[in-house]
Structure formats: C-alpha cells, structure tokens
Amino acid sequence: xKSPPSERARSIRRRLFALLLVPSVLVLAAGTLSDxxxxxxxxxxxxxxxxxxxxxxxxxNVRMDANNKATLTLPPEAVAILRADSSDAIYYRVSDSTGAxxxxxxxxxxxxxxxxxxxxxxxxxLDEPIRVVSYRTYTNAGLLTISVAExxxxxxxxxxxxxxxxxxxxxxxxGLVLALIGVGARLALSPLREVQEQIGQRxxxxxxxxxxxxxxxxxxxxxxxxxRLFNTVSESASxxxxxxxxxxxxxxTPLTGIQAQLELLVADEADHSKQQRLxxxxxxxxxxxxxxxxxxxxxxxxxxxxxxxxxxxxxxxLIVENIVADRVAAADRxxxxxxxxxxxxxxxxxxxxxxxxxxxxxxxxxxxxxxxAQVTVRCGVxxxxxxxxxxxxxxxxxxxxxxxxxxxxxxGSNARGAGSGLGLAIVxxxxxxxxxxxxxxxxxxxKGTSVRLRFPVLSAPLQPAYASIASTSFADAQRL
Amino acid sequence: MxxxxxxxxxxxGDAVRRALTAGGYAADHVVSAEAAKSALHxxxxxxxxxxxxxxxxDGMQFVRGLRARGKIVPVLxxxxxxxxxxRVTALDLGADDYLTKPFQVPELLARCRALIxxxxxxxxxxxxxxxxxxxxxxxxxxxxxxKLDVTxxxxxxxxxxxxxxxxxxxxxxxLSSIASFDDDISPNAVEVYVSRLRTKLGQAALIxxxxxxxxxxxxxxxx
Lengths: 480, 223
Prior knowledge:
heterodimer; A: alpha+beta; 5-stranded antiparallel sheet; 5-stranded mixed sheet; 10 helices; 14 strands; B: alpha/beta; 5-stranded parallel sheet
C-alpha cells in the first residue's frame, strides 16, 4: 500500500497549514501595528504636553519694556530647570512677529501654524531629530512665538520598547497559533489516517467491506466506492470459483464415462490389434483426465490464493489415511511398499487442496520408485509446527533442480514415465496458500527424495477432530 | 443379484450398468431420483449405485429419504466433486461407500462386491471372497475347496478383514475384534495371527499390511 512520497505529493495537512499560515501572519501583523499605535499615542501626548507646559512657562516670563519691546526675564535657575532632562537636550526660542530672535537658541525651527495653538511638529536641529512645540501669543509687542523643543531620545526609547515588547508577544502568539494549527490539522485528519491504516493493514485477499461507522463524512463516499469495488471483486471471484467448480464437475463426468467405457471395451475386445488400439486410447483418456484434474486444481488453488477461502480445521491424519488407502493398489502394481506414519496434527486450511497436494507427492513418490522401494506418508508436529511429508527411496531429484521442479510444466531430468509437470507446481501453490514451506531433501539413507510441507506454528493448538477413515468409517455399518 | 444405477450422465450410467452386468449382476439404469423411487417401488434391489449430482433431487437427498423410509439396501455413491467432506457427508447420510469420479471399473466392482457381502452377512451367512467360501453361522471356511483350519481369534480377524474388504482395517480394530477372548492382549498379537492366516490362506486371498495403517484383504486376480 505504501508508495514513496513524490517531491510534490499533495498533502492535505501541508495545504491546510499553508492556507492558514498567511492569514494568521497578516492578522497578527495588523494586531502588532494597532497595539503599537495605541500604546505610542498616549506617550507622545504626555511628552508633548510637558513641552507645551515648558512653552507656556517661558511665555509667562516674557515681559514688555517701556518701548513695548518684549524681553524674556527667565532667571538662569529657571532656564536650568527647563533644560534639565536626563536623556534629551531641551531647546527654546522666543521670536517676534518678524521672526527675529528675542531669546533662546537662535536657529531652532518653529512648528508651523496649524489648527491648534500651540502647534506641534517634528523637525531637525543640530543634525538631530527633534520635537518642537510653538506657542503663539499676541502682546503689546505684537505676535510672539515661543518654541520649546527636545531631542527624541526618550520618545525613541519608549517607541522601541513598545515595539519590541509587542513584537515579542506577537511572535509568541504566532508560534502558538502555528503549533495549534499543526496539532489541529493532525487531529482533524486523524480519522483519515485511521481509514488509511485500516486499509493498509488488510491482507490483499481481504475483500470484506470497510466499516463505515467511524469514517468521516468527507471521505465516506470514497470508502463507499471502495466497498462497492471490494464487493464487485468478491462477487466476480466467487463467480469464478463457481465456474471452476462447475467446470471440474462438467469435465470429470464425461471423462469418467469415456474412461469406463474404454475399460469395458478393452476387456471385451477379442481382436488383439483392436484391443491394443483401444488400450492406447484408454491410456490417453487417463492422461487427459489426470491433466484436466491437475489444471483445474491449479486454477482453483490460484483462485483460493486470491481470495480468502474459508479455512477450516483440517486433520492431517485423515488426509494421510485417505491418500494411502486410495493408493494401495497403485503401489502394489508398482511393487512399492506404501506405508504411513501418523501422529496427530491439525492445520487451518482447505481440505481438498491439501489432499490433492499430498496426493501428488505420493503419486510422484510411487511413480519414481523402483520395485521393492519404500514410500512413506507421514504427518505430525515438530517443534510446534505441523507437517506432512512423503519420503521415497526412488531416483531422487538432483539438488540443483529442487527449486525449479516446483514450477509449472517443469519435470526433473530423471523423471520417469509420462507426467504433466504440474504435480509439484500444485504442491507449491497449495503450500503457499497455507503459509507452508516446502523442504525437498534427499530421502533417508541418502536415497530417493523427501518432500515435507511445514505449516506455520499454530498459536492456539487445535484439538483435531480426528476421525480415522481406516478404522471408523465403516464402524456404523459393521455388525461384528 | 439386482443392482440399480441412478446416474443422469448417459455415458457414465451405461458404463456402470455394463460393468455390473459383466460382473454378474442384473443391472438397471435410471437417470433421476424420481425414476429410481418408482423402480424401487416396483422391485427389490440388492445394491444401489447413486450419483451425487442428480438433477432436481440430488443423490444425497435421495439417499437420506431412502434411509428415512427404512430401506436398508446397500448404497454406493458416485461423485464428481472434490473433497473429503462430501465423503463424510455421504457416509453420515446413510451411504455405505463412496467413490470419486473418475474411478476404474475393477475398483467399482470390488466396492460393490464388498457392499453386498457385508449386507448379506446377516441374512445369508454363506459368502464368497475370491477363492474363499465362508459360512459365517457355522464359522467355517474353505480355501479353494480345502477346509480352512483356523482358531477362534484367527477367524475373527479373517471375518473382520473380509467384511471390510477393499478398505484398510486398522490394527486397533482387529485387536478389538479379538479382545473379547482375552482382555490382556498385546497389539503384536495381531501381527502373529495375520502371519499365521497368510500361511493358511495360501493362494486363496492376500492379506496386505499397509505400514502404519493396518491390513487389507484382497482377492487374488489372475493376471
């Protein structure tokens, strides 16, 4: 389910984050500005007011002499008080209506007239920015302009302080908001992640619909579409399964008829040459039947592997008994001593497929063993893992061919007689379906072959419903 | 011996009928459960061979109905289906034996003979197996015409094998058939009795040991 994220893979979380980030930054910046101006204005007013107070104080000390000429009668102590400031230089200037200096600092600029008196302005003096307040008053000597100014160090300090503290607070806010967006996006998207995990954890064979109760409405339609898809796949798979089952049935019945009729004809035929020809046809019919059976089994085990077939508890002893019982006559014809070693063992699986697989192993063992050889079908549990095994003392499979013989239509270089090359492929498919491993080894005493299917260790040991065909099937009918 | 073949496939049905006829039975062939019921109503049969996959009422239902009506005629079921479970189901439903398609004609005949032998062992105590003739009532047997001199235990084992001919009989089962004579008996005793029986039977029948599973008795067929 996992694919490496491409460079520009679309992520809802990243998108959400980006979309929320820009407006949050803008809102916070606006907040910072408004905080700044709100805080700065009262300070400016207060400082301006003290300048105005100074100007009024200076104005109060302007006196008219006899010639109606204005003079400033400010004692040096008062000037010292006026100019006393820890951080800023204070300037003042008194001028008449012509702009001529009456007292104070000569080149101090005046605040231009404005709607208010005193008027205020920012200006420069002695290469420094200053704040100047000019008070205009009419006296007997005409218009007098009294300006008081100060450098802006205090104001700058306050402004810097306000700005930096409000910026600090706002940056913290920004950080918090970003963190909240991040956490929020993650929490908001967690149902999505849950669905993703649910799908990710499913086995590829699992076609059960996803539960809808915890799916958020936003992706409900996606999950519903998925469920419809699962349903379609599952239906087509079971249709396929029904088709294969029916095909198996439809093919097997006429083949049985042909084979049985030919057997009877061979037995009845007096003409030797005709009998021989019929025997050829009978052999061909048997091979055809065998290959059909093998191909159908292979197709159906493929199908079983693609779907989660209902795995049931399968008793390995039952399978071994069935296989040995069915092959006693064949083993006898081949002069092979067929036997079983049965210990209780139970696996989760598909009974008939296991029967086919182990049956193929037994057929191979009998076919490739010389007269007098032993073939043994075993089952049991080793170190917690159930196994079923067929050993023979026949021709063996060369070590370098052991992996390849499991492929379809591949036969061992020393295989005898006619064969489809499908037997071990079926074993391999069935093993895969059951999560079993196939060990092909040299048989006991260094001769022949031993093929073992090792099943996964059962977590909870099953109690095998151990019914033995050989000993109990006919118990009811028995009247002894 | 009358046998009824219930098989909807004409080719298979005809082959089974012919095989049975060749095996010395008077065999009839019908293609449905319905036809089989009317045939059974009209006549008595010693053996039924029933295909599982019949149209309409299938073979399993037919056999269940048959047993429900108290018919004890031996039934051999034929099936084209896979699986062990069908075998178990068929036997549970009251079939006496079960053969998977494709089967070979000699196997079919051997199963039929075994079924009839077992069914008749009560009503008709005289049965034949290959070169052996048994009188179950008098517990006497002849092998190729020669009287067979066997002990009680050997007889029990031979009887058990013959009545289950065609199938492997486990050592435990053979042991339990003789256990009533002596409760303290060793499993190895079975091997001893079988070995003695083999000598006594000579060429009349073959008792084959299937390692790990038990014994099976076979008729010796001339090849």
